[in-house]
Amino acid sequence: MAKKQHFYLILILGSLAALGPFSIDMYLPGFIDIAKDLHTTESAVSLSLSSFFIGISAGQLLYGPLLDKYGRKKPLYFGLVLYIIASLGCLAVTDINQLIVLRFVQAIGSCATAVASVAMVRDLFSVEESPKVFASLMLVIAVSPMLAPTAGGYLIAALGWKYVFVFLGFMALLMLLASVFKLPESYKPDPAYSLKPKPIINSFLSVLREPQFYTYALISSITFSGLFAYVSASPTVFMKIYEVSKTGYGWIFALLSVSFIGSSQINSLILRWFSSKKIVQWALLAQCIFSLIFLIFALNNWLNLYSTIGFIALFLACLGLINPNAAALSLAPFSKNAGSASALMGALQMGLGALASVMVSLFSEHSVLPMPIVMTAAAFVAMFCLLFSRRFIKHEVEASADATVAAH
């Protein structure tokens, strides 16, 4: 593959993977304005974020089989068109329930891009290359928290929160055009693949029976729920408790994303010397330690704006090491049903993210504490899964930058 072609392929796949995160982050600075305009509370507005997570979780289970039957591009086109329609619908909402429903529909569209991009990495790149490719995708994805809330803050301040959805719809349109004209079909459609419930369930069950998949997919998903707890709580924590402006909030989000970008790129270097398995172990241990200290500070009222930013940055840095390696390890045993495997992994991530988001929204809007509670719980439950579930892996396929080895 030519170097230029490789670059554009990574850029398109990364943009597709980033559509969901961009949709999450860009409207966050408008939570207070949305609550005022729709005559509701910030907690109620955060349920539109939870419904987005639920939509992505449910939709990925739908798109997995579609990607395996019809190839990667046709379901991708459908999802992008649905996303554009839902984005336009958000312009006409008059109450919070309409926004919650339309965000769910928007998520159903965007999850096609998430599942397709991950499956296409598995299609187009070898198991040896995939951790590096996932790290490259993480770089593109990580740019969204730098750009989206900052741009959203200025856009909302200048034109109002509804213009965020104008921008998102236009962004999806550009991705649709890039997918049609620049993205290759990486998987031959399988007409024999059945969309009846029983074969689909059997396909998912065959994935779930693989211990390496459920071990590392759970680790990735549970640690990601800590990220979603932070995302859901951050408008309240930074703009209401610490009284940061809309644009200031966007810049804080951008600053925090640097730790995520940096660690995901450092991961590519570390893979020269350490396996994905070892990186996951040590990064998860560090995440447990940092999140526990964060919780202790919160319980003793020792936190301020700067220490809160610092602890979140450390949590995200660990996540930037855990996620690309856990994703590569969970998908490494699969080839034919990689679409179903990536759909299940995405469903787990977003399902647990929705749960974390709802949990945070149920707590007081006047305390930082819910955020570190959920983040600490996520880190320790993920560590438990690693220690408990890994014993069932009899023949582990290791995904590294240098070689694929079988380890016991």
Radius of gyration over all CA atoms, rounded:
20 Å
Determine and state the CATH class: Mainly Alpha
Task: Give the spatial strand order of the biggest sheet.
Answer: 1-2
CATH architecture: Up-down Bundle
User: Helical residue percent?
Assistant: over 70%
Using DSSP, what is the number of strands?
2
* SS element count, helices: 14
- Number of discrete domains: 1
String of helices and strands? HHHHHHHHHHHHHHEE
In the CATH hierarchy, what is the superfamily? MFS general substrate transporter like domains
Topology (elements, then pairings):
Blueprint: H1 3-25, H2 31-37, H3 42-70, H4 73-89, H5 96-124, H6 130-159, H7 163-182, H8 197-208, H9 211-241, H10 246-270, H11 276-299, H12 305-331, H13 338-362, H14 370-389, E1 396-399, E2 404-407
Antiparallel strand pairs: 1-2
Helix pairs in contact: 1-5, 1-6, 1-7, 2-3, 3-4, 3-5, 3-13, 4-5, 4-7, 5-13, 6-10, 6-12, 9-12, 9-13, 9-14, 10-12, 11-12, 11-14
